[in-house]
């Protein structure tokens, strides 16, 4: 378990560097990431390379026993390159060029940019091959940030046509699978298909979905290009990429397949402001939402089923969300422990020192711009000292997470309020409120190891997946399927009757669906109690399933809403509404109980527990202290039974052993 | 009185068709609309026609005694045509092309597209000339949907210049009538005038209004092109077009002049969400707002003063509004009866089966995609059985509705809250709350047949119209003129003193006007009582008019606000404010009483009555039941004196005979 | 002290002119502004000049003893010129042309337009050289209105590169001073630098700031071009320009340097609707906010330290804000007196008659379109009669106002709620609530004459300014520095520790800053009392300063927030929060007391007093009457001790002599 930092020596005078790296070492940091965005410094003019500054920085770091994570600098092609080969620029949907002046202005499908990428990555990799201090590489930086996964340039148009040609036998097959008879949208050949540009009305959902898949695949292919170069030159290096939180347009699982290590960039006080549909509480503005962060931890841990890194950990106040409240005292340490509890092996703070130039001047570092320690420095040092080695997390439950379902529900949300992330988040929160570790994995993943599987909106479904889920249940699994599952086939066409190929397993079909605004009463029963739901309702026709809940409002009053059914050794439940918190607690709690998963009664807001390698983490993101009741023979490895606001405690044992109460 | 359905056989396998048409026939349907959007199927490549599928579908329908309404497929030019002749595409104001991928991407002024239209319409008409099952044609589909009436391409620029040249003697006359001295906007010749593109500040209102007129006229001309082809080939066909609800950019009266039958597309639960300024109630989300639908019924009935059709009637949940609540039980039947009560002769449900491909997958049909009956099927069948033949509606009151006034007030609303539809809707609602039938007709229409005329915002006025209104009043008419009447001349120039040429008739002029935000108190008296008004206030100078109401708030306190005057055999009232509901009830009620129009005291929200051919319809759009007190010798033709929520009752007699009370 | 009016004879038939000018003269008006926007009339075709109408109008005005202010007509190049030389048009950031059809469509850097400007201004000036009735010129009209200061055309791109070349020794210096190492933003030469176009993420703040400076300088240069032509031809004329209220993109101080007289256009009921962050009260909708207007008066008086003119004074209801309430009775007179109290020497109402054509038909004049007096006419006549000659205002306090700080804080506000105008307005209001006259001057201005200086957000700071402020304090000045001072160097780069070069003077540095949304409690103490603040908090490290206030909420609880320090003969205070009203009153009150500035206890909302030349103006913008307690030997020159709602009183004496209380 390791703490590290992101460092930009090129922003500081050479004479400062020794002091910087000395202070890093004395804080207990073990890794230093460098080099993303450095192309302009490495190659100020075409062919004029200047690596010496980076050589020196690596040497200084290595000398102090720390290791370096180098980055390929491709996120920021310099101005001379843009001027020489302007065709590398991305284009917006309406043809507007995305010009030089910020970052990520290149197109993933640009042949010119792939050439340039090959050139700079090869040169840089050769320079540092066999360098004893370079442990691995981060490829590029935050692929797709600022809406750059989807580009509409001519290179992309051609690549899209080729991509389609590879996936369909012929244009007739495409017309058939998309259903282009609708509104006379037939294509005569692949050449006739453009990226989805400006149109009077909305686009064909099958065309859009394929463009979104193609765009994500373009990033995968571009990433693979870099990975292959680096592996060819030195295959001792680990390769990683720093993904983003709740990022919508890129399939992180696909990119991860070409990596050795998955890392991501965690900014808790920003995400509560810009990635949720409701206003954050004051405590969340000071420390973030543990379930919002936790789901990302679990997605990126799940991607390779391997411990992840936080490649950029928020170090204090930050520049990009609407507001920049100071984090609570201790929050920077709490985040590190929370990451480890979720299966992280390293937490790298971003950045070492606040930058005095350019777009991120309002982003804190562990040190102030003048060099003195900033608020996060003591937190980071404390975390570095407290952390100890741990086995990976062993999660009893899987949450099925799918980027294709995210894209397809975004294309036709059928409600301004339906959001894939928020809907999945409802189930994820119910699991975490019970202190249960969750693997957030793609539906293709083997499910044998899980006592329970939660599938919130398995929107696109094919027979193969349905068969695998059936097999999982028959073999004794507990499966909870959420609303909007099996609505569409993989080409985004409506099935005959929802949930499509899952209907036999579920034992029910959807008779009607409706989406409802807030002013409409939305009540439903479950297991004899009445609850609120929101946004989405499916009236079910139960075949051989047991009706567990019925509507208690509207024209669907008394229609079945929640059913379950025993199948072989297991059981499947289908929840036809988007449950509010209490209903989610009840439905999920029942599934966990049936699965025999040890859990805690629903925890208070902001208080979470998590088990890893024989230890239980109590992470308190709330502004109230809690008491932890643990067995008398348990050992407090960090803190004690009184866990203050924004503090953490770690005790030996397992989740079933502890009880947390608010003081 | 007829029920029908819209059908897309091309979306389904051939082997399903018999079952579909059998089920239509057994539900009592009499008309089937087909073929709009079918160009890609009819002509998959240039000159390669494939009509056989349509021949067969028509035959199957005809065999079962039903008739076909065919559509010209011009709303969706196929991709091969767009690729061959890209100049047919529309352009946005900033030059962005409206590309292929949805519908309505063609320009009405494109010479190329008019050629192609001639070609396909001729071919199709010749194919079905003398076909005994084809009763008539729908020309194109929903002209102007998705903001496509106004285009800014070069074809439109040239056509606009020609259109201006035809309407003005010379460029000097245009400069004079527009008033281009303002801000040095003089034009040297017609060639110098462009469509109104992107400018630093707002456009000249006279130029904008002429562009809006021109754009509407372009659709009229395009529609006439199709009508002439069809009439030439077989003049037994009726010709219609399916207009939209509360549609702002096209003058439906002008288009209707080339048609035999006016039809429109009614989606009650969608319109309450996206075409009103206030939030819908729960009952409105389940069944719509009868006055919002009713005004459209009355506009389209008024267009040719002839029974209208609902060409697309909402069949259940729909895809395009923000939310998609399930309609109330019975709502689909209620809408059919409501349309008939307003003078409709046919109600065609859209669509037969839910579609499994493309943009409208979330739009219900009478049958589910799998083929089983959906919620609307029983309602449609019931309506088909209940309906009986009726004479046209005979309305005692006219509401003057004018697209030019809508455009001109949109150009200079002088308040974010002034909306022509909502302002007219206030008066329309007051009339309908009294159960009075209303013809919504253009100001040019003869008014002799009406006991009362309501003219909400007769913004653009010329002497001829003023003279006709004066004659109407002198001959005994009751005229109610609303605020913002006579502000401008027909070229959108301010008159010397509002209400311009109406001043003598009204007996007052406007001293001041003001527009007021919600936080300002807005009170006014009328006939001794005090009322609320909203948004707009005119301080009047009464000449020989009687002051009926004065302001009771603000710097205009005690200024006259409402006046009336006897003129010859009749009377004219002028209401200088936008009245809130109670004031509208009072002002309108007085006019009806003076006109001797039989009416009901203001009805409860959502409950409406309407008289047609010796029957009174009681349509209950509310979620509370009502009781109807009718004469003992009256016969209940449908239902009885207890009309449940979302139900309908029809009793013999006239509006003055019944009393409706909430139970 | 003079009243005048803006007149457009070209909008009216020649036979009306005598009556118009007779009525002006009889109302006591002394100046008539004419000719802006008249190019199309003056030169209907290239080289065909028609000045006769203007000759006549001037003659008629002069004959009645009034003087003319002529305008160059360059704000509206006519269509023939645009068609001939389309390269004069501005371009938006995304390349969209700003087309003909409104006004201000020309680019300030267009070589073609500068030629045309030279031609028309020369011609016009020569025509009226030595005309005895032409007193001076307004150059162009409202430079930059409708977002036109910043243009992105090729002429601007080239001019920007030249402008940069003139300001930096070489491209290396630019890279160094901007800090382009960040995100590889280095430039190889000046030619590589474009105007800031569309980019995936935000722009480099140093590049943006320089573009904003350049754009403002482009207007300065264009204005100078006109000024030089006019001065060359007749140097008896005064030259002015009509600036706008709270205008963000143009440095008015820089433009003013080439003028003899500064004037501006005041529309109180519009500005409260569209230039403030909170909703206006009903009284403000009727008469405006005296502090919002007052700050603009003081900026434009401060620009040349000379009495200003209101070149366009709102005459009644106006067309451009969201709503158009009628002003209160007397408001048009109140505004004239308020302007004079703030140091204005002339108030010109806009316009003489309501216009019946074009974009401003909903804008009142002193006369109605038909010619009869409108509401403002009596007010204007009354003001003309009441006004008397006065010496300039002598303000004891300076408020430092800086356009560069406005631009730089707009580039990185670091909060959606931080607004330079509103933040400065908080301090300005506190000063005006005490009845103190304020010069709003740029930081470069000599401060010797001021007893106190308030510097709200002195964001960009260099050593020279810091030294001048230090000297000011050492010599006995009272300096109040607000939050966000000294954050950046003049190139928009973060300093080592805020407040940068001011740290020694202030005796404290900023340890942390944070921006906070409304839901977070924000409390702070000052001088033993607890107060609210908003949006912005800086935790201070006090060196030798005295801690005067500490935070009382959040993680910064007990951190210093407000400090002060004695330095030489004076004192400096630093307020690290954006104070709410009561805290601003307390902090500012203390500074005034220490400075020995006579002041009134905080006045009621909307009630303001101001001293000029031995008289005190009591201007009541509230809807409640007030009583004024003045010394028995004081003389009421206008009104008396009872000042009604929306009324004014003027009494001899000074601010320290009177007491105002609400009745
Ligand atoms: Zn691309
Ligand atoms: Zn066009
Ligand atoms: Zn320009």
TrEMBL record, chains A, B, C:
Domain (Glycoside hydrolase family 42 N-terminal): residue spans on this chain: 6-388
GO-annotated biological processes: carbohydrate metabolic process
Keywords: Glycosidase, Hydrolase, Metal-binding, Zinc
This protein's record includes keyword Hydrolase: yes
Catalytic reactions on record: Hydrolysis of terminal non-reducing beta-D-galactose residues in beta-D-galactosides
Domain Beta-galactosidase trimerisation: 395-597
GO molecular function: beta-galactosidase activity; metal ion binding
InterPro entries for this protein: Beta_galactosidase_Trimer, Class_I_gatase-like, GH, Glyco_hydro_42, Glyco_hydro_42_N, Glyco_hydro_b
Keyword ATP-binding attached: no
A GO CC term attached to the entry: beta-galactosidase complex
EC number: 3.2.1.23
Top-rank EC class of the record's enzyme: hydrolase
Family, similarity comment: Belongs to the glycosyl hydrolase 42 family.
Cited PANTHER family: BETA-GALACTOSIDASE GANA (PTHR36447), BETA-GALACTOSIDASE YESZ (PTHR36447:SF2)
UniProt name for this protein: beta-galactosidase
């Amino acid at each position: 378990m390791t703490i590290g930092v992101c460092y930009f020596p090129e922003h500081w005078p050479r004479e400062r560097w020794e002091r910087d790296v000395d202070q890093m070492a004395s804080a207990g940091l073990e890794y230093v990431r460098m080099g993303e965005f450095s192309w302009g410094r490495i190659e100020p003019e075409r062919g004029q390379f200047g690596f010496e500054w980076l050589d020196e920085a690596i040497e200084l770091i290595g000398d102090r026993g720390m290791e370096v994570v180098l980055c390929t600098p491709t996120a920021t092609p310099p101005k001379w390159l843009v001027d020489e080969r302007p065709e590398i620029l991305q284009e917006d949907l309406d043809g507007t060029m995305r010009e030089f002046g910020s970052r990520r202005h290149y197109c993933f499908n640009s042949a010119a940019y792939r050439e340039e990428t090959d050139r700079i990555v090869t040169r840089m990799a050769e320079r540092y091959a066999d360098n004893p201090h370079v442990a691995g590489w981060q490829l590029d930086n935050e692929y797709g940030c600022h809406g750059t996964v989807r580009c509409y340039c001519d290179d992309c148009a051609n690549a899209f046509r080729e991509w389609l040609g590879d996936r369909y036998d012929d244009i007739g097959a495409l017309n058939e699978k998309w259903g282009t008879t609708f509104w006379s949208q037939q294509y005569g050949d692949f050449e006739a298909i453009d990226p989805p540009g400006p149109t009077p009305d909305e686009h064909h959902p099958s065309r859009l979905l394929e463009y979104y898949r193609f765009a994500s695949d373009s990033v995968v292919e571009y990433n693979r290009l870099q990975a292959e170069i680096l592996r060819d030159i030195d295959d001792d290096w680990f390769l990683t990429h720093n993904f983003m939180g709740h990022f919508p347009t890129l399939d992180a699982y696909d990119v991860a397949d070409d990596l050795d290590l998955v890392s991501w960039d965690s900014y808790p006080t920003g995400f509560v402001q810009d990635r949720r549909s409701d206003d954050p509480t004051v405590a969340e503005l000071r420390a973030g939402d543990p379930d919002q962060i936790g789901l990302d931890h679990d997605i990126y841990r799940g991607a390779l089923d391997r411990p992840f890194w936080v490649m950029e950990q928020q170090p204090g106040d930050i520049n990009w969300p609407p507001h920049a409240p100071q984090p609570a005292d201790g929050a920077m340490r709490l985040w590190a422990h929370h990451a480890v509890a979720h299966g992280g092996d390293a937490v790298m703070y971003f950045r070492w020192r606040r930058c005095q130039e350019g777009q991120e001047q309002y982003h804190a570092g562990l040190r102030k711009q003048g060099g003195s320690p900033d608020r996060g420095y003591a937190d980071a040092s404390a975390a570095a000292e407290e952390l100890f080695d741990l086995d990976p997390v062993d999660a009893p439950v899987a949450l099925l997470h799918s980027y294709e379902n995210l894209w397809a529900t975004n294309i036709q949300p059928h409600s301004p309020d339906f959001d894939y992330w928020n809907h999945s988040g409802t189930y994820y929160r119910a699991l975490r409120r019970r202190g249960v570790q969750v693997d957030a994995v793609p539906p293709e993943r083997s499910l044998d190891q899980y006592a329970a599987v939660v599938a919130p909106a398995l929107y696109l479904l094919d027979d193969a997946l349905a068969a695998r889920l059936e097999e999982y249940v028959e073999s004794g699994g507990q499966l909870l399927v959420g609303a909007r599952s099996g609505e569409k086939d993989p080409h985004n066409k409506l099935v005959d009757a929802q949930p499509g190929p899952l209907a036999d397993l579920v034992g029910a079909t959807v008779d009607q669906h409706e989406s409802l605004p807030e002013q409409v009463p939305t009540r439903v029963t479950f297991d004899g109690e009445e609850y609120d739901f929101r946004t989405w309702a499916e009236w079910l026709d139960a075949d051989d399933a047991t009706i567990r809940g019925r509507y208690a409002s509207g024209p669907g009053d008394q229609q079945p809403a929640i059913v379950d059914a025993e199948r072989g050794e297991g059981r499947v439940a289908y929840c036809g509404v988007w449950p509010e918190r209490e209903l989610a607690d009840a439905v999920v709690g029942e599934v966990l109980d049936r699965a025999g998963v040890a859990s805690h009664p629903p925890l208070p807001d902001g208080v979470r527990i998590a088990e890893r390698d024989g230890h239980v983490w109590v992470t308190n993101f709330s502004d109230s202290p809690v008491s932890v009741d643990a067995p008398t023979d348990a050992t407090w490895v960090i803190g004690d039974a009184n866990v203050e606001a924004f503090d953490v405690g770690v005790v030996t044992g397992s989740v079933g052993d502890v009880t947390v109460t608010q003081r």
